[in-house]
Design goal:
The chain has 260 residues and is α/β, with parallel strands linked by helices. The chain is 42% helix and 16% strand. The strands form 2 sheets. The chain has a 6-stranded mixed sheet with strand order 1-2-3-5-7-10, sandwiched between helices.
Amino acid sequence: MTGPIRTHREGGILEVTIDRPKANAIDLKTSRLMGEIFRDFRDDPELRVAIVTGAGEKFFCPGWDLKAAAEGDPVDGDYGVGGFGGMQELRDLNKPIIAAVNGICCGGGLEIALSADLILAAEHATFALPEIRSGTLADAASIKLPKRIPYHIAMDMLLTGRWLDAVEANRWGFVNEILPAERLMERAWERARLLESGPPLVYAAIKEVVREAESRDFQTTMNRVTRRQFRTVDTLYSSEDQLEGARAFAEKREPVWKGR
C-alpha cells in the first residue's frame, strides 16, 4: 500500500509505516486510514504481530498535524474506527504490537507508541508531550502515562512539556531497548518473528486481561479469569492449543500452535 501509510506483509507480520513528509504528522484522513489498517490486522486470522514505525530518520511521529488543523481539520473530528492513530481506541485489539521509534516521538505520536506492547528506540530518538505549550490537553497520555512510569515523571512531562532522550525513556521504563539507528528495524523484525512463533490465543488472553485489569481490583479480575468470563480466556481454555502446549511439554518437543 502506498500513500501516507505504507504497509508490508511478511508471513504473519504486518509492518505499518507512517510516511507523510516532512514530519509524519497525522491528519484526520491519515488517522482514519490507520484505523482501517489496524482493524483489518485485528480481524485477519493469518496476521499475528504488527510493527509500527515512521519513514525517514528524523521523525517517528509528532502527532496531530497542526497545519491540517489550521486549514480546517477539527481537533475533535472523526479520527476513525480506532481513534487517533488507529490503535488506542480499537476494541479487542488482542495481538502484539511493536513500536519502532526512529526519531522524534511527541504528542499524539507518543500516544501511538504507548498503545504498542513493546517500544524499541533508536539511539537518537526523543520523547515529549508538548501540548501544554500549545494550550491543549494530551488526553490519551494523561490517562496512560502515569500508569506506565512513575507518577512524578509523568506529571513532569505533562506539565512542562520537557523532552526525554532515549536513555532517560529507557530508565523510566517505557522503552524496552535502545538500538543504533541502523539496527532498529532489524531488531523489531527479530522480536516480531519471535512473537509470530508464539501462541496467539495466549497473547489474546494476556492482552484482554491486562487491559481489563487497569480498571478493576486484583480479586475482581482474578474471579473473572477463573470463571472464564473473559472471551479470550474462555476460548483459550477450550482450545486445541491449550492441549498442544501440555502435550508438547510432556513429549519434550516444540509446540505447534494453530490458533484454535
